[in-house]
Write a structure and sequence with these properties.
It contains 19 helices and 2 strands. It is mostly helical.
Length: 428
């Protein structure tokens, strides 16, 4: 249908601009059929039966939505539940981790400082394997879907799992530093590493230890591979991009109260892309492409275009869950409002707010007082942000499907659809 890449990009950009135009309308009263709540929801008996047992907060929010997969417990998305893989794949992945730790701390390595090896083992075991492991599992999934069947040997699959654990160590490095900078108390249901009495600010050095362990693992298993140089370049590039993302975000929270004049959609998208999207979505697929011998720049560019779009939505989904998700389901207490984060919800609220509503944001946003947090959440509902998110979710899903069908020439569509459906939890 589209004769050139340029014409396709133009069509997709028009589509994206229309989504943003709908989101940024300054009125909280919707004036489009696409933006209106479904009137037939209350009459749908099957839906009513599905709602039995839902938390009251979710039932309250459902009045806004046609279909909101992010708040459907049976279909919790990637940001809440993690990548959907088989039990066998999960077990196969987990089975590699003890061997990696053993290789890094084995008897005879740093024999003159055995306490250092013991500490490294403790550091890795406490921080690396206890999350959702989205990035590691995505690396393995992508490799298996990209590699030629004849090359899917036990040895190569084992290497893909090891590469996946290297991406998880990269993620751990980011979390350790981020938790220290933000003073986070809890991570994955346990005290953050730096909050342990025997750690404190020495956690900065521990983050460097994790980074070194990551590079040592890459060298041990991949130094003889033709793609090793390109893999190292990708890890280094992602380190730079994440550091830029951290810098951009910290610029908005230099003081006790956030500067809301800096909360723009352009700034939010830049932070999201550099801090999250690159290493969460592009990196696992990019590494799998390199492992299968695909180093063509255009192929990587096409994959990157789609994956960064997915990464942006993933972060927006995470922002929404932080505010409106149930802590018992998503595994954490939301604190974006208390921390004064530049989130999608905050940016859209400021785009729509009247002068009086903006004053509410300025007075209450960034406060840890429960009454201030509640006032911001009430304002979000007054501005119908749950409904706006619902519309955005549907439109983004359609847009990404179009991009996959039209842009991924030479790449298997099934890989991108699998990742997409994991984000939205549809038919997976």
């Amino acid at each position: 249908m589209f004769s050139t890449k340029k014409s396709l990009d133009k069509i997709l950009q028009i589509y994206k601009n229309e989504i943003r135009r709908q989101i940024s309308k300054t009125t909280s009263v919707t004036n489009s059929d696409a933006m209106a709540p479904r009137l037939d929801q209350s009459a749908n008996k099957s839906q009513q039966s599905d709602e039995i047992g839902l938390p009251k907060k979710l039932l309250k929010l459902q009045k806004y939505h046609r279909f909101l997969s992010t708040l459907t417990p049976q279909q919790m998305p990637l940001a809440a539940r993690g990548l959907a893989v088989s039990k066998d794949q999960s077990r196969e992945f987990m089975a590699c981790f003890p061997d990696i730790v053993r290789d890094l701390t084995k008897t005879g390595k740093h024999i003159d400082v055995p306490e250092a090896s013991k500490w490294l083992a403790k550091l890795l075991q406490y921080n690396v394997p206890n999350g959702k492991k989205n990035r590691g599992l995505a690396t393995v999934l992508a490799y298996k879907m990209l590699e030629k069947p004849d090359n899917l040997t036990p040895e190569n699959i084992h290497l893909a799992n090891i590469m996946g654990w290297c991406t998880e160590m990269f993620h751990t490095l980011q979390l350790l530093l981020n938790d220290i900078m933000e003073g986070t108390e809890m991570r994955r249901g346990a005290p953050c590493w730096h909050r342990r009495p025997d750690v404190g600010l020495s956690g900065i050095n521990d983050a460097v230890l994790v980074q070194s362990a990551m590079y040592s693992t890459l060298k041990r298993h991949f130094s003889a591979k033709s793609y090793y140089k390109n893999v190292l370049e990708m890890f280094n590039e992602m380190l730079l991009k994440c550091s830029i993302g951290q810098h951009l975000e910290k610029q908005l929270t230099k003081t006790d109260k956030p500067d809301l004049s800096l909360f723009t959609m352009e700034k939010y998208e830049a932070i999201t892309k550099y801090k999250t999207a690159y290493y969460t979505f592009q990196m696992p697929v990019g590494l799998a492409l390199l492992m299968t011998g695909i180093d063509d720049p255009e192929t990587h560019r096409q994959a990157k275009t789609i994956l960064l779009e997915m990464g942006e939505f993933f972060q927006i989904q995470d922002d929404f869950l932080d505010c409106f998700g149930e802590p018992a389901v998503i595994g954490k207490d939301g604190c974006d409002i208390q921390d004064g984060k530049c989130t999608w919800l905050a940016v859209v609220a400021l785009q729509r707010a009247t002068l009086e509503q903006r004053k509410i944001m300025e007075e209450h946003y960034g406060s840890a007082k429960p009454e201030d947090v509640a006032r911001i959440k009430d304002l979000y509902e007054e501005l119908q942000l749950p409904h706006t998110y619902s519309v955005y979710e549907e439109a983004t899903y359609d847009l990404l499907r179009t991009q996959i069908q039209q842009v991924t020439r030479g790449l298997p569509h099934d890989l991108f659809f699998k990742i997409l459906d994991n984000i939205f939890r549809r038919s997976v």
